[in-house]
Each structure stands twice: as C-alpha cells, then as structure tokens.
Amino acid sequence: MKVAVFSTKPYDRKFLDQANTHHEIVYFDTRLEPKTASLAADFPAVCVFVNDNVGAETLQVLAEQGTRLVALRCTGFNNVDLETAFQLGIKVVRVEAYSPYSVAEHTVGLILMLNRKLYRAYNRVRDDNFTLDGLLGFDLHGCSVGILGTGKIGLIFAQIMAGFGCQLLGYDVYPNPEFAAIAQARYVDLPELFAQADIISLHCPLLPETHNIINAETISQMKDGVMLINTSRGKLVDTQAVIKGIRSGKVGYFGIDVYEEEDELFFADWSDRIIQDDTFQLLQSFPNVVITSHQAFFTKNALNNIFSTTIASISDFERGNPLKHELTL
Ligand code: NAD
Q: Is 208 in the pocket of ligand 1 (CB under 6 A)?
C-alpha cells in the first residue's frame, strides 16, 4: 500500500525502513497541515506524528484525494479531529503502548536534573569550577509525588518513584488497581494532590477536561516551591500562570518535555534563527526551568515498537482485517 509519511526525520526513515514489510513508503519532511495535504494525493494511507495537523480542514482534503487511513506513530491523538474522520470514512489508528518506560524514565531524569541541578553542575565542571554553591538539592526519599493520570506511563513512573522511597498521591478518572497496589500509593482527590505533593507530574491525555489543568487557580493550591513536571502534552499547562508562579517562588522547579506552543519549535533546528515566542524565551531564562524537546519517547526500544505496530496496522488495513489499534469515538 502507498503510505505518505509526514514530519519525517532521519531516525524515522531508519526505523520505518527496518520495520517495513512490503509497503511503498514516501517520506515528506514537512508537517501535515491543510496546505501540505495535497502531497498525499492518491495515497490510501498517511502516517503522522504529534505535531501534524489532522484537523477537519486537512481531513477534508485527504478524503477528497482518496486517503482512507491515518496512522499515528504516537500515543496521543489530540491533533486529530476524530469526529470529522469518522464522518469522512477515514480510519485512525495509533500506537497505544510502545514503551511506557521511555517516558517514565525521562520524567525521572527531569526530576533529578532539576533537583540536583545537573545541568548547572555539568557546565560548571566543564569550566573547571568545582564549587558547590547554588547546587543544593533535596532527598527524594520521603517526598510526596502527585501523579495526575495513572495509566501506562503514570504507573511505571509511580513504581520507579516508589523505589526512591517517595509517597505517591494518585489522581485518575479511572483508577488503576496496579497503582493502588503499590505500598506507598493512594488515590486522593485533586485538591488534596495539589495541597500535599512536593512534586507533581502529569501523565493524563490532553482532553477538553484536562486542557490547562495546571492554571493560576490550581497552582495557588500547591505547596510553596513545588516541582512541576510535564512530559505529557503542553496544553495541560497554562504557561503564563506557571511563569507567574516561578516569579513569586510558588513554583520552585519546572521541568517540561512538552510545551503549549511547541508545534513550530520542536523537532527543528532554531540555533541560527531568532525565536519569536517570548513566553518560551522567558522560560528559558529561568535558572530553575529545564526543557527538553519532546524526546521522552525517544529510545530505540520505543522506536522499534512504534514502527512495527504502525506497519502491522497498515497491513491489517490493506487486508481488511480488524484494526487492533483503531481509535473510536
Ligand atoms: P494511558 O491512556 O495509559 O493513561 C492515561 C491515564 O490518564 C488513564 O489512566 C486515564 O484514565 C487518565 N485520565 C484521563 N482523563 C483524566 C483526567 N481528566 N484526569 C486524570 N486522569 C485522567 O496513556 P499513557 O500511555 O500513560 O500516556 C499518557 C500521556 O503521555 C499521553 O496521553 C501522551 O499525551 C503522553 N505521552 C508523551 C510522550 C512524550 O514523548 N513526551 C510519549 C508518549 C505519551
């Protein structure tokens, strides 16, 4: 089957070529959006990533050109207008689980980086400066960690943090018995999570109910100096509210792998250009903020799983088999 792959990077080609069985794959570097959708003319399948725009307008163009399958090579699907896809008869598949360990472990990396100021320590030692002023951290052992969303990633993250000797406060609209089974874990309501947690980590999907779930009001309920970590989706957080919190000292640490307005920035090299996003530039200027560019998923284990699942879904679609990873309303 002919597959148009958008937002392609060299590593996508490498892993997708390895996983491909027989499909005719054409790679496009550009993002999928209404003005680039014409590139997929006569492709029955398109393959997209987190920042491709699969909204109503794009889907309309794809449908008119004969596309019948959108294969997301990621877990989150907030960039797809599912209702329009159904109306147009376009099936949408995703990769539900490829390596929850990749994202959970990166989340822990952000926490250690912020707490022990590893980014500053690394640069300091490179500069032959062996002083410790400004590098003071705290023991994770005994801390309360609030986990918003205890699905696949939240659960693994919880298990790792339990190993550090943390107390775990979970919140989820669908509680997970495996989380509740962790000795140091208990479910609480959101106000209690916000009030009790020293570290808050987001692992829920971006939905209308979770959009800007971290905002001025919820930040005001948190402990002074709270550490906020987001490896889920940027729009879970009202960045302006966090900036106010950082300035007042309410937010003591902010670690993110995702950013509200990341679409234009992330996965591209901006080192020789002027970034026009003042909010992002301001965030970068704070000493207690660490940003990575949506790389939490980026392990070879995850990429192998992502592309073998994607190819299997495309093959199932081609053969008219049931789609194991289809998204339904
Ligand atoms: P999952 O579906 O296994 O778990 C999500 C959990 O969130 C579920 O238990 C669900 O019940 C819960 N949830 C839903 N609505 C909620 C709400 N209103 N409040 C609290 N909890 C709610 O998904 P997962 O595999 O654990 O992935 C979680 C998120 O991580 C994804 O949605 C995606 O946005 C993000 N992610 C990021 C990266 C990255 O590279 N940074 C990679 C993969 C996934």
A: no
Show the domain range for 243.
Answer: 100-291
Ligand 1 atom at minimal distance to the Cα of residue 74: 43
Instruction: Establish if 326 belongs to a structural domain.
Output: no
Single-letter residue type at 319:
R
Integer Cα distance of 89 and 68 in angstroms: 7
**Burial environment of residue 271 by CB neighbours within 10 A (0 to 12, 13 to 18, 19 or more):** exposed
Residue nearest to atom 42 of ligand 1 (CA): 297
Q: How far apart are CA 36 and CA 95, in angstroms?
A: 24
CA of 208 to the centre of ligand 1 (A): 13
Provide the residue-wise pLDDT of the chain in tens; the chain has 329 residues: 999 999 999 999 999 999 999 999 999 999 999 999 999 999 999 999 999 999 999 999 999 999 999 999 998 899 999 999 999 999 999 999 899 999 999 999 999 999 999 999 999 999 999 999 999 999 999 999 999 999 999 999 999 999 999 999 999 999 999 999 999 999 999 999 999 999 999 999 999 999 999 999 999 999 999 999 999 999 999 999 999 999 999 999 999 999 999 988 999 999 999 999 999 999 999 999 999 999 999 999 999 999 999 999 999 999 999 999 999 98
Whole-prediction pTM value? 0.92
Output the CA 130–ligand 1 centroid distance in Å: 40
Q: Are residue 211 and residue 287 in the same domain, yes or no?
A: yes
> Do 48 and 78 lie in a common domain?
yes
Residues 6 or more apart from 118 whose CB is under 8 A from it? 112
36 and 138 both lie in a single domain:
no
Pick the closest to residue 116 from 147, 140, 143 (CA basis): 140
CATH number at residue 204: 3.40.50.720
- Please tell me whether residues 161 and 286 are part of one structural domain: yes
CA distance 151 to 154: 5
